[in-house]
Specification:
Ribosomal Protein S8, Chain: A, domain 1; Wheat Germ Agglutinin (Isolectin 2), domain 1; 3 domains; 3-stranded antiparallel beta sheet; 11 helices
């Protein structure tokens, strides 16, 4: 979820460095090691910088609750197990998902340098925020990144059903470009992510029809405060439901991680271990062609797509990653907008942990 224009315009902006420092201080006070707390802060704020506002600092109060309740391990022993020339599994020891996937990103790049491609699974993990943040980890090495995860709660039913047995199970793909913005797709397999629903609940704004339906009646559900009564709708009808299932099977059972009825709703349960599974794939572009040649070819096609004929009423053709890159430049320069409703929650965290309030940094 990116903030709408009106909310963003009204929100005070805060430097990314201050946000990272605040997150790190709160997490250290909650039991994390200094280096781990800062790394989590960096990855959370990267989500904020790129416009995934429901997956950055917005999630900090929830993470703190789970750490305090014992649902997550503040001091995990994260280990890598190589299972083959191009395959590895990260054992997360119930640590924060950001730390688990940071290690997976390092491993994916290391392995892909050796073999050209790496498939890194992760298990015993937790919610890690924005999928694009992890798909983008291989980009500095000029590698393609592909990421998916079993979402940390089930909010979708199998096509035609009413039981919430599937998550929003996202797919993120990041394609590196030399001296140009990467091409980045990050999408839930539902019409919107559940984080977007939570964002609407925080701000007190109704949801449009077409996001959720009442699980009992099938009628549109637009009140985000009643989200527990509804199910999210998949993208593309039965196709989205099928895609969520297949991605979930790859990130869940293949990693001996949770899927289906075994998924713990981390929104409602702060104590139970979630057993979250992820997948990160890294692909070395240089094994196919020179990265500069690849960039030129991709650019040629992107230019064709942008310049293609538009339907009536369409001002411009938008391509994956364009708004993400533009938003990141804007927020890196001017600060990240934080609505007052969220800032009030962060102020309470500061009071509880003894951290300096974000608005005072």
């Amino acid at each position: 979820m990116a903030l709408d224009q009106e909310t963003e315009a009204a929100a005070a902006r805060h430097p990314a460095s201050a946000m990272i420092g605040f997150i790190a201080d709160v997490l250290v006070a909650t039991g994390l090691q200094d280096a781990h707390a800062r790394r989590v802060g960096e990855l959370m704020v990267e989500a904020d910088l790129t416009g995934a506002d429901a997956h950055g600092i917005f999630r900090l109060p929830q993470y703190v609750r789970r750490l305090r309740a014992g649902g997550m391990n503040p001091r995990p022993d994260i280990a890598l197990s190589r299972r083959g020339p191009a395959v590895a599994v990260v054992e997360g020891d119930n640590g924060m998902g950001h730390l688990v996937m940071s290690r997976a990103g390092e491993a994916a790049v290391e392995i892909a340098r050796e073999t050209g491609i790496a498939w890194v699974g992760a298990r015993r993990s937790n919610h890690a925020g924005s999928g694009a943040v992890y798909a983008a980890l291989p980009l500095p090495a000029r590698m393609v990144g592909i990421y998916t995860v079993v979402a940390s709660a089930n909010h979708m039913a199998p096509w035609g059903g009413t039981d919430s047995l599937l998550g929003t199970n996202p797919l993120a793909i990041a394609i590196p470009m030399v001296d140009a913005d990467p091409v980045v797709l990050d999408m839930a397999t539902t019409v919107v992510s559940y984080g977007t629903v939570k964002g609407h609940a925080l701000l007190g704004t109704p949801m449009p029809e077409g996001w959720m339906v009442d699980a009992k009646t099938g009628e549109p559900l637009t009140d985000p405060r009643r989200a527990k009564d509804g199910i999210l709708l998949p993208i593309g009808g039965y196709k989205g439901s099928g895609l969520a299932m297949m991605l979930g099977l790859l990130a869940g059972p293949l990693n001996r991680a949770a899927f289906g009825r075994d998924v713990v709703d981390f929104n409602a349960d702060d104590r139970t271990v979630t057993e979250t599974g992820h997948v990160l794939i890294a692909l070395d572009v240089s094994r196919f062609l020179d990265p500069a040649d690849f960039t030129r070819e991709v650019t040629r096609h992107l230019d064709d797509l942008r310049a293609s004929a538009r339907l009536p009423g369409v001002e411009r053709i938008r391509l994956p990653g364009e708004m993400r890159a533009a938003r990141r430049r804007d927020r890196a320069a001017k600060g990240v907008p934080i609505p007052e409703a969220l800032m009030a929650q962060l102020d309470r965290l500061a009071e509880e942990t003894g951290a300096t309030r974000l608005r005072e940094r």
